[in-house]
Amino acid sequence: MTIKEKINDKIGNIVSRFNSLSQEENSKLQTETVISDGMPELARQAAAEGAVLLENKGLLPLAAGTTVSLFGRTYKDYFFVGYGSGGDVIRPYNIDIAEGIENCDRLKLNTTLHSIYLEWIEKNPVSHGYWAHWPLRYWEMPLTDEIVAQAKADSDVAVVTIGRSSGEDRDCDLDNGSYFLHDEEIEMLDTVTAHFDKVVVLLNVGNIIDMSWVKHYGDKIGAVMYVWQGGMESGNAVADLLCGKVNPSGRLTDTIARNYYDYPSSASFGNKKANEYTEDIFVGYRYFESFAQDKVLYPFGYGLSYTSFEIKCNDVKANDNGFEFNFTVTNTGDVAGKETVQLYLGKPCGRLGNPSRALAAFEKTELLEPKQSQSITLFVDMYQLTSFDDCGSTNNASSYVIEKGEYSFYAGNNVRQAEKVFTYFQEGTELWQQLKQVCSPKNDFIVWRAEEKSGKIYLGSKHVAKEKYDLATRILNNLPAAIEQTGDKGIKLADVKNGKATLDEFVAQLDNTELEAITRGDYKMDSPLGPKGNAGAYGGVLESLRNKGIRPIITTDGPSGIRLISCCSLLPIGTLLACSFNTRLVEQLYTIVAKEMKEKGTDVLLAPGMNIHRNPLCGRNFEYFSEDPYVSGKMGAACVKGIQSQGGSACPKHFACNNQELCRNTNDSQISERALREIYLKAFEICIKDSQPKNIMTSYNKINNVWCHYNYDTCVTVLRNEWGYEGNVMTDWWMKPSKSIEFPNLRDQAYRIRSGVNLLMPGGDRVTNGKPDGTLLATLGKPDGITLGEIQQSAKYILKSVMDIE
Ligand code: BGC
Q1: Statement: residue 419 has pLDDT above 50
Q2: Predicted pLDDT of residue 22
Q3: pLDDT value, residue 20
Q4: Which residue, judged by its Cα, is nearest atom 2 of ligand 1?
């Protein structure tokens, strides 16, 4: 343990006594233990289905009766989830790996070794740190040769757990003990592999870590599996996988590169002020598959099984809307298992410089017995063939186009092992959709582009297309008309819902104080209007609003379960769920969460986390799904459908480009419009069009110098006008006060409302807690001030979400 870690630990122990947001603090609270019907089984299935088996030299599954020696303290001090709002759930129980093995009727635990660990752990307890100072790992018990030799004598197999964590407001370190193995862990692996000839390594992590050590140990390590942070059923799921009751079927939703610096974003991640997204659309496998295949250790979509499958494409039907692929998947091995058919699109390089592969569709089979087959149908929409021309290279600036050339489809079980199954020729470049330029860079910088010379693809570069339009004019031309204020006419919100009055008639009744109140929350987290520990309330935050039938809407975090001072299920992290590639399962899981929401009295779950894994060090990657927007969008939609199945609301977040935690409130993501649309907004676009969330949350960071909670183009031009979104747009918790760039008379709440960000959460600001900050109404009715129509329009979106939440 380093001195820095020791100091952090000490401070953590003191601070966590006062910090109600600390996970440790909350889990000490006495709440009634509640276990939802069906949740343990489903959470266990999900935790197992998202685990990714990277290496297996015939060691797994372990034969019935195998005695297992567990090494690495996190087998006991397990990271069940990451830290911060995405992990702070008071769960009914946690099953660590030792308990999982003990519960498993096929495996035995080496209890002598386990007792040694327990004794040491008792004397060396972990600390959970404090906000933004979460531990990235826990220090290890030093192992002597005697201990390991005895363990070898007492057991058949060593299972070594490497644990990592991360959390909100803190990125991982490019250092030993975070991205890299710590010396203590290397020593542990050295000692264990010196004595055991059968060694399994489990990665209990929220982020991808350096994996170059796998090659170094070679045959000394027989199996390596990412088991991620699997929520409350983690240990049972791990035991199921080790003993073969469950056949691993998770697939990577991120590329594992040989070296951190092979990740294209490594050159511009971790800057305090701004990061230039130089790699442009070449995020993750889009880069590796196009330009650097040899820099990959484990490709996107990769994962092993205890059986083998054949994926056969039977036929492809093309029509004006797209392409329908029919596959037969057959289990060709000896044990039952599940396979995911992954369909990738290879676009022509074209003038825009397209990546050589992009995930276009996927589907997981049911459990297939040996020799059993299943038909799978996948559909690729013509829209997925488009690329965004942000600089006019195809003479169609600000448009989605289908470039002329050959479009190849590849099917298989990872991006690298996918056979060409169909080719489509596009005769000429087709303008698909003419749009408006949005949110483009203000300053010049260079981004990567793919270039074709004599049939070969090279990595070239280009200047980004800069902003060429006047945002102020765009906004002023689109200002909504005011509804004449009538005073109270006795119309209740239920009358609007029942069709007895219009929403405009209802809103006409609201005076300015009420309009101000409706466009912000009830000021604080843990609002007295909701159950203890909620994240804040909105809607009926004034008596007069409640009298008009607007009830308070209660929000709670978050992506891995409901964060209240009350017992709720802890789910596996987002990355694990995405690796399951099982959208049906994810939807079912969140359907149970939705029922818990009803029971606990919360209306909006601040989830799913939908940002792209641009870099493996981002502290909140565990909450998010993938480096790929398609799987992120589909997983997000599955969560939203589950959460909204019982009448409540999801709230996909953080819209958009929240790809780093360092200086998350001020950091500027400098990005081309093409990368913004094709990668970072795309996940949200897919999710929103597929599942219509009733709420969406903006992010803290800036995009091209504009804070996302003041971003008219993302929140209105794209979200509403292009995608037809009709729900409510809320801020992330408190926002940065600022004067409007285009309208210097407007600041803070007026700037926000003009930008189409309807609701400030949790309300007020940290200083004026308990009363409005005054900035919304300050300029109402004044020349160049905020207009009544704008405030009323935001109120309408919020009221619509109140009505839509049952
Ligand atoms: C996080 C959000 C979270 C909110 C409420 C913010 O710090 O960024 O993801 O939903 O707090 O807890």
Answers
A1: yes
A2: 39
A3: 40
A4: 732
* Residue 107 to residue 110: CA distance in whole angstroms: 10
Largest CA distance in the chain: 85
In angstroms and rounded to an integer, the radius of gyration of the C-alpha atoms of the chain is 26
Domains for the chain: give ranges and CATH numbers. Answer: 3-254 (3.40.50.1700), 291-299+308-466 (2.60.40.10), 514-564+602-804 (3.20.20.300)
Taking alpha carbons only, the member of 314, 371, 303, 315 closest to residue 339 is 303
Beta carbons within 10 angstroms of residue 1's beta carbon: 14
What token pair was written down for 644?
A: 């909204």
What's the CA-to-centroid distance between 640 and ligand 1, angstroms? 17
Q: How far apart are CA 113 and CA 111, in angstroms?
A: 5
pLDDT in tens, 707-755: 999 999 999 999 999 999 999 999 999 999 999 999 999 999 999 999 9
Residue pair 93/234 in contact (Cβ under 8 Å)? The answer is no
623/691 Cα distance (integer angstroms): 19
Can you tell me the distance from the alpha carbon of 48 to that of 225, in angstroms, rounded to the nearest whole number?
A: 11
Q: CA 418 to CA 732: how far, in whole Å? A: 40
- Residue-level pLDDT at 26: 47
Upstream peptide bond of 762 is cis (omega within 30 degrees of 0) = yes
pLDDT(519) > 60: yes
Q: Using H for helix, E for strand and C for coil, what is the string for 222-243?
A: CEEEECCCCHHHHHHHHHHHHH
Measured distance CA(437)–CA(468) in Å, rounded: 8
Mean pLDDT across the chain = 95
Active site residue 732: yes
Q: Is the confidence at residue 219, as pLDDT, over 70?
A: yes
Q: Collapsing DSSP states into helix, strand and coil, what is residue 516?
A: helix
Cβ atoms of residues 532 and 566 within 8 Å? yes
Task: Using the predicted structure, report yes or no on whether residue 16 has a pLDDT greater than 50.
Answer: no
- CA 347 to CA 350: how far, in whole Å? 8
pLDDT of residue 770: 78
Is residue 535 in contact with ligand 1, taking CB distance under 6 Å?
Answer: yes
Half-sphere exposure at residue 510, Cβ-oriented, CA atoms within 13 angstroms: 35
> What is residue 27's predicted lDDT score, i.e. its pLDDT?
45
CA distances from 486 to 389, 417, 489, 492 (A): 48, 66, 7, 14
SS3 percent helix, strand, coil of the chain, rounded to 5, is 30, 20, 50
Helices 39-49 and 583-600 sit at what angle, rounded to 10 degrees? 140
Ligand 1 and 240: CB distance under 6 A? no
Give dist(CA 6, CA 699) in Å, integer.
33
Interatomic CA distance for residues 579 and 598, integer angstroms: 28
Q: Residue count of the chain, please give it.
A: 806
Q: Are 100 and 257 in contact (CB under 8 A)?
A: no
Whose CA is closest to atom 4 on ligand 1? Answer: 733
| Residue whose token pair is 């909670």 | 709
Q: How far does residue 470's CA lie from ligand 1's centre (Å)?
A: 32
Strands 399-402, 387-389: parallel, antiparallel or unpaired by DSSP? antiparallel
Nearest atom in ligand 1 to the alpha carbon of residue 653 is 9
To the nearest 10°, the Cα dihedral for 613, 618, 624, 628?
Answer: 0
Q: Which sign does the torsion angle of CA 274, 280, 284, 287 carry?
A: negative
Gap between the terminal Cα atoms of the chain: 51
Active-site residue among 557, 732, 748, 765? 732
41's CB contacts (< 8 A; 6+ apart) are none
CA 28/CA 97 separation, integer angstroms: 21
Of 10-19, 316-325, 641-650, 784-793, the poorest mean pLDDT is in: 10-19
Cis peptide, bond prior to residue 128, ω within 30 of zero: no
Mutate to test the pocket of ligand 1, among 89, 134, 168 (most ligand atoms within 8 A of CB): 168
